[in-house]
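Bug #2210: token dump truncated for Transcriptional repressor NrdR?
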Amino acid sequence: MKCPFCGDPNTQVTDTRENEDGDVVRRRRRCVNCDKRFTTYERIDLKMPHIVKRNGNRTEYDHAKLAGSLKLALRKRPVTVEALEAAVDRIEARLLSMGEQEVPSEKLGELVMKELKKLDKVAYIRFASVYRNFADVDEFSEVIREVQTRPRRARKGGAGQPDPEHDLFGN
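Reproduced locally. Full output below:
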């Protein structure tokens, strides 16, 4: 590390401390040449990949935009802020683990849909309807069928007839 006062490259570390979270290291240094002291900070510098849009344009990854998209899909849904933030963290971790400098927006959209499907099926359908830009009702119906947890059973009494084993309250 060069001395900021005289430019000499010979400096010594006199003290090293981590912050409470352990993600920043503070170092006190002394210049061997001019004997002046200064502080440096060392922190992780992770580079998120650029996002390649469908039209070929490239844009920097935007944490706020990703979180906003999930918030919009989850609007008025019973999902905690902590669950939302955890989903954003998982998406970002996945983007970083790819090790790519650029990621297609389609891949980011699929990661978002995967997280939304785990969080809330209604939010998943909301996001999918905009993201996939459904051309007709059949495409929309297919996504709904995809998230249904159990197939519907035919009632014993036939269509429109009450099931003799269950009353209106499922008893």
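Output looks complete on our side. Residues 81-98 form the longest helix (18 residues). Marking as cannot-reproduce; reopen if the truncation happens again.
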